[in-house]
Design goal:
The protein has 331 residues and is of the alpha/beta class. Helix content is 41%, strand content 15%. It has helices at residues 31-34, 42-59, 75-85, 124-138, 160-173, 186-195, 219-227, 247-255, 260-269, 284-291, 293-301, 304-314, 318-326; strands at 13-16, 65-67, 94-99, 101-103, 118-120, 142-147, 176-181, 197-198, 201-202, 206-210, 231-235, 276-279. Helix 2 runs parallel beside helix 10 (284-291), helix 8 crosses helix 9 and helix 9 packs across helix 11. The longest helix is centred in the N-terminal third of the chain and has 18 residues, at 42-59. The radius of gyration is 19 Å and the shape is globular. This is NADP-dependent oxidoreductase domain-containing protein.
């Protein structure tokens, strides 16, 4: 089992590698940063990832946190090579990753119509395969391993064999076990996951959930999960860039003399379920701006009326939010 790190304080803000580990993703305006989608070789993407990781290690408040996944292209490879190249000790970084999807886009951005960039498989065989792949790439650094996008339809919430395999991973490797959730059913999925036990022990230590100023429907379930002792991780805090175009958010950011991204992430950090939040930054400047969210969160915690006002003015219908998200194109 991996020995406990001397610094167990887990940072409130981390770097998600979804948009840095592969040439295409659904975030808005990627051409403006990476250039044409047909000119993003592995070397270029890895160099960009290294720049943002440099910024994370230079600016993190305490122990840097990086979140990968088997399906985020070469994210685990990029992170593993970076950490070893810079002689980072496992106790000096917090690394989370995920299994359940396989990246199949072959480093292409534009695929034939209907062709997927990643394919889901929540079978025991795939878990055993992918956990070994993760272990090979970054195993000595991993603190948390998560089911990638657990759903009722995939069967992962009902499979006793999967639950036993995950529990064995926790015992054998010393990795915490979590799940990520998506869709309008996030709250229902999370509540079901909270019920799962193996040998009388709760299986899941954490949940990674979509929550932002536009999509707030999972809030009550996240509060229940936090009260039960689960670690709450928020992904897509900027709604793949959509919140940055929201006029209400832009106006409040002006009033508070901050950037829209810092305000949006600060509103999340100020929530009562005490979340940790992943930045989807793909440039050092974006990351530095995102990290200022902690300061905004403190202001909002002291002015609950303002926080509630911002939340109420920005929220969308959950079904509409997810329909819009599903229409975003890989770019």
């Amino acid at each position: 089992m991996k020995p406990p790190a001397p610094n167990q304080v887990i940072p409130k803000l981390g770097l998600g590698m979804a948009a840095l580990g592969r040439p295409g993703y659904i975030n808005l305006d990627r051409d403006g940063i990476f250039g044409s989608s047909d000119s993003r070789p592995i070397e270029k993407m890895q160099k960009q990832a290294d720049l943002v990781l440099d910024s994370l290690f230079a600016n993190a408040d305490g122990r840097p946190w990086v979140d990968c996944a088997r399906s985020y292209g070469l994210s685990e490879e990029f992170v593993g090579e970076y950490l070893r190249k810079n002689n980072v000790k496992p106790s000096d970084v917090y690394v989370s990753s995920k299994w359940g999807y396989t990246y199949v886009a072959d480093w292409q951005v534009q695929l034939e119509k209907g062709a997927p960039h990643e394919v889901k498989d929540h079978s025991v065989d795939n878990f055993l395969k992918q956990v070994e792949e993760t272990n090979e790439m970054i195993g000595e650094y991993v603190d948390l391993y998560q089911i990638h996008s657990a759903t009722f339809e995939s069967g992962v919430l009902e499979s006793v064999d999967i639950h036993k395999a995950l529990h064995a991973c926790k015992l054998d490797r010393g990795w915490a076990i979590g799940l990520s959730v998506s869709s309008p059913k996030q709250g229902e999925i999370l509540r079901r996951a909270m019920e799962i036990e193996v040998d009388g022990q709760k299986l899941f230590d954490s949940v990674q959930c979509t929550y932002n100023l536009l999509e707030q429907s999972a809030g009550p379930a996240l509060l229940e999960a936090r009260r039960s002792g689960m670690d709450i991780i928020i992904k897509e805090g900027l709604a793949n860039g959509r919140v940055l175009r929201n006029e209400v958010i832009i106006e409040y950011a002006k009033q508070l003399s901050c950037t829209p991204d810092a305000l949006a992430l600060g509103c999340i950090l100020a929530q009562g379920f005490e979340p940790r939040v992943l930045s989807g930054a793909v440039t050092p400047d974006q990351l530095v701006s995102n990290l200022k969210a902690s300061q905004i969160a403190e202001k909002l915690k002291a002015d609950e009326q303002l926080l509630n006002e911002i939340m109420a003015k920005c929220v969308m219908d959950s079904e509409d939010y997810w329909n819009h998200r599903s229409a975003l194109e890989w770019n």
